[in-house]
């Protein structure tokens, strides 16, 4: 499923602007402990987290995630959005808790 389809089908909000959203999402990873995510995330996955600092961008790039979904209504700063845009990393916002965000993606076959 493409990032654009994920956004359309879930109703989540795109935080970044003017970035390509046609990359494929091949799975989902949920986690907030960055060292754990670095060791277990797989390229192409959508990463669901509540972390909202620049290290999220670094980990997402290291693991080659297709996008990052900030869940539970965590506030995404303009600085984080700008950093993600500089790195060409799509940030998505979900007001739902992590579990419910993951359930929505699971219902779509991810």
Compose a concise summary of this entry.
By secondary structure, the protein is of the alpha/beta class. It has helices at residues 3-10, 34-40, 54-63, 78-86, 98-107; strands at 13-14, 27-30, 45-49, 67-70, 90-93.
The number of domains is 1
Helix and strand run: HEEHEHEHEH
The proportion of residues forming helix, as a percent range, comes to: 40-55%
Strand order of the largest sheet: 1-5-4-3-2
pLDDT < 50 stretches: none
What is the annotated CATH architecture? Answer: 3-Layer(aba) Sandwich
CATH superfamily: HprK N-terminal domain-like
Query: Got a strand count?
Result: 5
- Could you please say which CATH topology applies here? Udp-n-acetylmuramoylalanyl-d-glutamate--2,6- Diaminopimelate Ligase, Chain: A, domain 1
Structural features:
alpha/beta; five-stranded mixed beta sheet; about 110 residues; globular
Protein described:
This protein has five helices and five strands. The chain has 110 residues and is of the alpha/beta class. Helix 4 links the parallel strand 4 (67-70) and strand 5. The longest helix has 10 residues, at 54-63. The radius of gyration is 12 Å and the shape is globular. The relative contact order is 0.24.
